[in-house]
Specification:
The structure holds two protein chains of two kinds.
Chain A lengths: L1 H4 L11 H25 L2 H14 L5 H11 L5 H9 L4 H15 L7 H17 L3 H17 L3 H20 L7 H13 L3 H17 L3 H10 L8 H17 L3 H14 L5 H17 L6 H4 L9 H12 L2 H10 L1 H6 L3 H22 L2 E3 H8 L6 H14 L5 E4 L4 E4 L10 H23 L6 H33 L1
Antiparallel strand pairs in A: 1-3, 2-3
Helix pairs in contact in A: 2-3, 2-4, 3-9, 4-6, 4-7, 7-8, 7-9, 8-9, 9-11, 10-11, 11-12, 11-13, 13-14, 14-15, 17-18, 17-20, 21-22
Chain B lengths: L1 H6 L8 H15 L2 H9 L8 H16 L3 H18 L3 H15 L15 H21 L3 H16 L11 H14 L3 H9 L9 H15 L2 H6 L9 H23 L2 E3 H7 L5 H11 L4 E3 L2 E3 L14 H18 L1
Chain lengths: 488, 333
């Protein structure tokens, strides 16, 4: 699951490794200068861009390149430099000496901006994780977190939020998530106090993930409902949030909201995040089944998901037919898949829906059927199937699943004539909900439009011009009006 | 007998395993009968050795506590509590329990502090046992609020002390009891949240399975299965909640019947709703469902059914919707 839910852009494959080494270093330096300008101009956007570029370089990172980069951007005698170098594997040290010589010649990049330092931390951490040096990565992550705590700059927030993510990620890989819960909570509090919304968003997700990893749905929901909410900054974080909310709601039987969140998460997730979308779809399928809806066939036929969704496809089929026997077989056949997906308990809940669908089918096909036959058709396996069938039918009638009456004396179920759906308000209601959805989508899209900063200033300058133009127009209008008057 | 025992030159290694065994045995002895029975049945404690070993262990237990006066005090009060518990003297129990709870707050090793003191293991085990008793006591005194409070106090001992003390044999019975309580109070969302916390293997445990199956039958509507489950309760303490559940089930059945049947003969109604006499049925109908009618030896539900839905166009709603569409379109164009 951890691997599946990972949501990251797939790095561009390098075509020539050998020639890319100096090139990579060059790229890293460019990124560093980008961060620098971003930090001076206080433009968070540039730092976002820098982080994106880094992810693309990820596969090409090597210890030698990293040490060269560290030498060039950090003051060699500084504490941060010494610490970061110590995390790198030892074989890089020989290369380092040569690099020091070259970088000393280049010279001009020497400075100690906190952004650059944090960026170096992030780079080293990513490198360590990619090379599976988890213990070093853990130490490095904790050190970075301590450093981040002491810096309070909005331009650092972007880098910090990435650091938090990898901090939690490395602990998840080593299965020690429970240890960092306290740290994450205090970081979240800190981010809230500093109005670091990006950090809050990231940390809230990490905490939710942390809780859900241990199935602590209660705590997760309590935290979620108490944490401050604001408009999402990062699409990926928002997707994750929706997914977690969907999961919590599903467990707490709030299926309608759960469905909305899960479907939205699946829709918003980037195409490359296939694993994440598969997870969303799995949960969404179950929630829709629990709601009594039938997911369309196309859901299971999406490219790249066909195989992963296969168990859920067969499950849907069993529910659609309303065959308890088949349902049991499917649940048994794929029980290992369901337990790794942690959906086993939800599938147990589905049994009830299978019975309902079966009952609905019976009620549609027969106008009068004995309860003995109902029990046989539903394949209820209990000591007293007829009595079970009677009370199950009674409950289905009360819940409005079927339109029928029971005759106890003759032991029969009498279905009522199904009326014409188009004579009811149902089509109108369905139509309304679709229109509402479309309108809402449009409004959200308008809200999500981004405008370049400072554009309103330009408008102010042109305000005088506009006044002039309006004046001219007014005069023109007066002229026309006078002309009109003249004609009379 | 106790004194005689203490004079004997017995030296048992106070090692880990020995200590654990001691605790378990002592617990078994001090419990009221039902516990004893169920532990014996599981073969934890060979019943023949039970008495002598228990006395010995209790003695050793006392001596090992001599170091810490606070711990000794708690253990002593707890012994008195257990004695009162066996006598079913619940008033004394309650009084002693509140004393115990106050005393427990002085141990730094207990949640949420979890300080690693010298006696941490001992204190945690003792505190867990006290809260387990408190939960069972609340069931016996039929106090659901107290149950909830005590259970939440107990829960950290089950979830957060995995590496510190060995799991309690009472864990699943009490968790199952809590599931049952949530079911009775119709807090299904919490029921499922609790269920998610249990590992897959726990679902096979008879105590948990009982509650899970009940929930399923309840959801499906197979009410007679819910009621027959009362005969197969895994533990005596479950009976209290099962009785409460039976009342809920009866209301459910009543609600379903009035929608599903046009009429029922009094005899059938009596059987379906599990009344032993016509008198009880009549009383129930009078109090809970005065709209039902008893006529010619049958219960008629017709009156309760709503009249045919009127085919009126909900004009106000439609106007509102259309206006909102217009407003939204205006905004777009």
């Amino acid at each position: 699951m951890t691997q599946d839910v990972e949501m990251r852009e797939v790095p561009v494959a390098s075509n020539s490794v050998s020639s890319s080494v100096p090139l990579t270093l060059q790229h890293l330096k460019e990124i560093a200068s980008l961060i620098e300008t971003g930090a001076y101009a206080k433009e968070v956007r540039r730092i976002f861009h820098a982080v994106r570029l880094t992810i693309a370089l990820r596969k090409k990172l090597k210890a030698s390149i990293l040490s060269a980069f560290l030498n060039s951007v950090l003051v060699p005698s500084s504490e941060a430099h010494a610490r970061l170098i110590s995390y790198l594997p030892k074989d890089a040290v020989e290369d380092m000496e040569i690099d020091t010589a070259t970088s000393a010649a280049q010279g001009p990049l020497k400075h100690s901006l906190p952004e650059i330092e944090i960026y170096c931390h992030l780079l080293v951490l990513i490198f360590l994780i990619d090379h599976k040096l988890y213990n070093e990565a853990k130490v490095c992550a904790s050190a970075s977190i301590n450093r981040v705590k002491s810096v309070n700059r909005r331009t650092v927030d972007v880098l910090a939020s990435r650091l938090y993510f990898y901090y939690s990620y490395v602990h998840e890989l080593t299965d020690s998530l429970a240890e960092i819960r306290g740290t994450l909570l205090s970081l979240h509090r800190m981010a809230t106090l500093r109005h670091d919304e990006l950090g809050q968003e990231t940390l809230l997700n990490l905490l939710l993930r942390n809780y859900l990893h241990y199935n602590l749905y209660d705590q997760a929901e309590k935290l979620r409902s108490k944490a401050p909410r604001f408009e999402a900054h990062n699409n990926q974080q928002f997707c994750r949030y929706l997914f977690y909310v969907g999961k919590i709601r599903t467990i707490q039987l709030d299926y309608t909201d759960a469905k909305d969140s899960l479907l939205q998460a699946a829709r918003k997730a980037p195409i490359s995040a296939r694993g994440f979308r598969i997870q969303c779809n799995k949960w969404a399928v179950i929630v829709r089944l629990l709601l009594g809806e039938m997911p369309e066939r196309t859901v299971f036929m999406q490219t790249g998901m066909k195989k992963a969704l296969r168990p859920y496809f067969e499950l849907t089929n069993a529910v659609r037919i309303g065959d308890l026997e088949l349902f049991r077989n499917v649940a048994e056949k794929f029980s290992s898949t369901f337990s790794t997906d942690r959906t086993h308990n939800l599938i147990v809940r589905l049994r009830h829906n299978v019975i309902r669908t079966g009952l609905r089918n019976i009620s549609i096909s027969y106008s009068r059927i004995s309860l003995v036959d109902v029990a046989r058709k539903l394949r209820l396996d209990s000591s007293n199937p007829v009595a079970d069938a009677e009370s199950i039918v009674a409950k289905a009638i009360r819940d409005g699943a079927i339109d029928a009456t029971l005759d106890h004396a003759s032991g029969c179920m009498l279905s009522k004539e199904t009326g014409d759906v188009y004579s009811t308000l149902e089509p109108q209601m369905a139509f309304n909900s679709r229109i509402a959805f479309c309108l809402n989508m449009h409004n959200e899209a308008v809200k999500a439009l981004r405008f370049p900063p400072n554009s309103h200033k330009k408008e102010k300058e042109s305000a005088e011009k506009r006044r002039e133009r309006q004046q001219q127009e007014q005069e023109l209008a007066k002229h026309i009006a006078e002309e009109d008057d003249d004609e009379f | 007998m106790f004194i005689v025992c203490s004079k004997r030159p017995f030296v048992l290694p106070c090692s880990w395993s020995g200590f654990l065994r001691e605790r378990k045995i002592e617990r078994a002895v001090s419990r009221p009968l039902p516990y004893l029975r169920c532990e014996r049945a599981r073969g934890d404690v060979p019943s023949l050795e039970l008495d002598s070993v228990a006395l010995l262990s209790r003695h050793l237990h006392r001596r090992s506590l001599a170091m810490d006066p606070k711990l000794t005090e708690v253990s002593q009060i707890f012994e008195r509590f257990k004695a009162a518990f066996v006598r079913s003297d619940f008033d004394t129990c309650r009084r002693l329990l509140s004393q115990l709870k106050v005393l427990l707050t002085e141990f730094p090793s207990l949640p949420p502090l979890f300080q690693k003191t010298a006696n941490a293991v001992h204190e945690l085990t003792l505190a867990r046992e006290i809260y387990e008793h408190a939960v069972v006591l609340s069931v016996k005194t039929e106090d659901q609020d107290a149950f909830e409070r005590d259970f939440f106090q107990l829960k950290p001992y089950y979830t957060d002390t995995c590496g510190l003390i060995p799991p309690s044999p009472q864990e699943y019975p009490i968790l199952g009891l809590n599931l049952l309580r949530l079911l009775v109070q119709n807090r299904i969302a919490e029921f499922h949240t609790e269920l998610e916390l249990l590992p897959a293997s726990a679902l096979e445990n008879p105590y948990i399975k009982h509650a899970v199956e009940l929930e399923q039958s309840f959801m499906e509507g197979a009410y007679n299965r819910v009621l027959s489950a009362r005969q197969t309760v895994p533990h005596d303490t479950y009976v209290y909640f099962m009785d409460l559940l039976a009342k809920t089930v009866r209301d459910e059945i009543g609600g379903c019947s009035e929608k599903a049947y046009d009429y029922l003969s009094v005899a059938d109604a009596k059987q379906i709703m599990m009344f032993s006499s016509d008198q009880e049925l009549a009383e129930y109908i009078e109090v809970e469902h005065p709209e039902w009618e008893i006529k010619d030896g049958s219960v008629i539900f017709q009156k309760a059914k709503e009249t045919a839905p009127c085919k009126e166009i909900p004009s106000l709603q439609l106007i509102n919707q259309t206006l909102s569409y217009a407003r939204e379109l205006e905004r777009i164009v």
